[in-house]
Amino acid sequence: MKIAIGCDHGGIALKPIVKKVLAENDIEIIDMGCCDTKSVDYPDYALRVAEAVSKGEVDKGIILCGTGIGISIAANKVKGVRAAVCHDLFTAQMCAQHNDANILSIGGRVVSEELAGQMVQTWLDTPFEGGRHTGRVAKISEIENKYFK
Fold first, then answer.
1. Would residue 9 show up in a list of annotated catalytic residues for this protein?
2. Beta strands, E only, the chain
3. In a designed cystine with 105, which of 28, 57, 68, 78 is the match (CB 3.0 to 4.6 A)?
4. What are the tens digits of pLDDT across the range 84-105?
5. Active-site residue flag, 95
6. How far is it, in rounded angstroms, from Cα 134 to Cα 112?
């Protein structure tokens, strides 16, 4: 598996934790920046990761900003992306199990390093359930196809 990771200055502190969890799972990591605490614009990094996911260059993505919100909004503008902001283990599990989220978004100023690592592991370990959720995810794609031509 190959996962792209991107962040802004607000999420940079969690990046080493996320990378450690990915490495422990023998996942190839594509680091799309940023690399320090200098102020940057989160949409730039969201776009890098979201485009890589959308184009199939990577299997999934993880994005980090101060809250996880702004970077996920930007990522969700890319067709085929289902980026979910998670702040606990339950939402990390459900976004994978029910929504087939292909990008996990975490707030570096919202969750601890320990919880972030646990959330990444939970998201990785949770398969998409399919069943009734398949139709719901398909409806998301229908919306995209209507508005993103």
1. no
2. 2-7, 28-31, 60-65, 83-85, 103-107
3. 68
4. 999 999 999 999 999 999 999 9
5. no
6. 32
